[in-house]
Amino acid sequence: MDLIKMLTGGKDYSDIARTFIEKLFKHEAKKYQCQPHDLMILLDREEGGAIKMMTYSKPDNKTWRVIPDNEVKEILMK
Predict the structure, then answer these.
(1) HSE-up of 11 (CA within 13 Å, CB side)?
(2) Is residue 39 a contact partner of residue 57, using CB atoms and an 8 Å limit?
(3) Residues 44-59: b if buried by 16+ CB within 10 A, e if exposed
(4) Could you say which DSSP state residue 9 is in?
(5) Closest Cα to residue 42, out of 1, 72, 77, 70?
(6) Which helix (H) or strand (E) holds 78?
(7) pLDDT score of 47 more than 60
(8) Which of 10, 33, 73, 75 counts the most CB atoms within 10 A of its CB?
(9) Region 1-28: what's the mean pLDDT?
(10) Are residues 41 and 27 in contact, defined by beta-carbon separation less than 8 angstroms?
(11) Is residue 64 a contact partner of residue 57, using CB atoms and an 8 Å limit?
């Protein structure tokens, strides 16, 4: 979905955030060949203010990876 269309389509900020978060879920589910509901996207704010996004597997009960910022950017711009 085009960012401009989202911003002018009457959606509020929470709808836009949900749309972007759903993109992360779909990407990570495809990458790990699982269902989006088997994952959690975790956000961690470090002391210096940096925010990390991580993929967590519910069935495995562990964090699989920290999603690199450049990859997050690519996912969200699709």
Answers:
(1) 17
(2) yes
(3) eeeeeeeeebebbbee
(4) T
(5) 72
(6) none
(7) yes
(8) 75
(9) 79
(10) no
(11) yes
With H, G, I as helix, E, B as strand and everything else as coil, classify residue 5: helix
Cα separation, 31 vs 5, in Å, equals: 27
Reduced to 3 states (helix: H, G, I; strand: E, B; else coil), residue 71 is helix
Q: Give me the amino acid identity at 13.
A: Y
What number is the average pLDDT over the span 53-67?
96
Pick the closest to residue 53 from 63, 34, 66 (CA basis).
Answer: 66
The beta strand positions in 7-61, using DSSP E, are 39-45, 51-57
Q: How far is CA 24 from the centre of its chain?
A: 3
Residue 29, token pair as written in the block: 């589910």
Task: Using DSSP, state whether 52 is helix, strand or coil.
Answer: strand
